[in-house]
From TrEMBL:
GO biological process, one term: fatty acid biosynthetic process
GO molecular function, one term: quinone binding
Protein name: NAD(P)-dependent dehydrogenase, short-chain alcohol dehydrogenase family
Pfam families hit by this protein: adh_short_C2
Signal peptide segment: none
Key words, A-Z: Oxidoreductase
Protein family per UniProt: Belongs to the short-chain dehydrogenases/reductases (SDR) family.
InterPro entries registered for this protein in UniProt: NAD(P)-bd_dom_sf, Sc_DH/Rdtase_CS, SDR_fam
């Protein structure tokens, strides 16, 4: 059996006809998620900042064309409670239901390089936490009532393996991703009685444009070699775990963080 990206594997059943909200959909990884959900027959509301409209619209058009699900772009800032309300209203108006939320938006590429924690400034720290942590919480807060009303749902947050390994040069990002995992557990405890599951995916270093703005070629190559499955990681490698957590195939799994990194970090 070859070591193919998870997107090459059959998708779990039970997502067709569901509605999924994916944030950070205007970048490469979020775009892969949108296309993967549409390919299962789920309809997708792709959320990102308006400035990503060109990429986000290209993603939603491609996803809708290849289907069978349909995808629409909903510009929104995940740090804004009122934007989240508009996203939920648009989702219900467009597709009549809201079953899955993928909290994928983050300040990652926009970190603009690595620097010692002694050189980070308060504004940078606050912005990373506003998007990565507050944005994730506001998303959960916004979708929970619709999920509770319809008898349940699945929320998948995106953390990072650096939340547990630590990493040099972006302490605010590392701390924010550890916070996302704590929030995942808290939300799972609170929402479980309503059949709303909350899990997280912790990706390893993905060999994409965003990672290349922060890391050298040598660093990326060393990360690839350090894996049990020693190759570069692609966005599509995350798809299988994400679809599984979103689908009824994982119906008794909640509060967990699934590490998807080719076997580099064992927890
Ligand atoms: N790329 C990696 O190696 C890697 C590794 C581990 C975890 N992750 C996580 O995976 C996710 C996707 O990573 P990526 O490489 O695509 O990152 P990225 O920085 O390229 O993309 C993040 C997306 O989030 C959007 N976003 C930022 N602020 C927003 C806001 N306020 N409102 C709405 N959208 C906003 C951006 O516009 C962008 O499209 C992130 O959560 C990231 O932390 C990435």
């Amino acid at each position: 059996m070859s070591n193919l990206p998870a997107s090459a594997a059959p998708a779990p059943a039970g997502l067709a006809g569901r509605t999924v909200v994916v944030t950070g959909a205007g970048a490469e990884i979020g775009g892969a998620y949108v296309r993967a959900f549409a390919a299962t027959g789920a309809n997708v509301v792709a959320v990102d900042l308006l400035r990503t409209a060109r990429q986000a619209l290209e993603t939603t058009r491609t996803a809708s064309r290849t289907g069978p699900g349909r995808a629409v772009f909903a510009p929104a800032d995940v740090t804004s409670q009122s934007d989240w309300q508009l996203v939920v209203e648009r989702t219900i108006a467009e597709f009549g239901r809201l079953d899955v939320l993928v909290n994928n938006a983050a300040v990652y590429r926009a970190l603009s390089g690595k620097r010692p924690l002694t050189e980070l400034v308060v504004e940078e720290w606050d912005q990373v936490f506003a998007v990565n942590v507050r944005g994730t919480w506001l998303g959960i807060k916004a979708v929970a009532p619709a999920m509770v009303d319809s008898g349940g749902g699945s929320i998948v947050n995106v953390s990072s393996v650096v939340g547990r390994t630590g990493a040099v040069g972006f302490a605010h990002y590392v701390a924010s991703k550890a916070a996302v995992e704590g929030l995942t557990r808290a939300a799972a405890r609170e929402l479980g009685e309503h059949n709303v599951r909350v899990n997280a995916v912790a990706p390893g270093l993905v060999d994409n444009d965003a990672s290349r703005t922060l890391n050298t070629e040598t660093y990326l190559a060393a990360a690839a070699r350090a894996r049990s499955l020693p190759r570069p990681m692609q966005a599509d490698d995350l798809v299988g775990a994400l679809l599984w957590l979103a689908s009824p195939a994982s119906s008794f799994v909640t509060g967990q963080t699934v590490v998807v990194d080719g076997g580099q970090v064992f927890t």
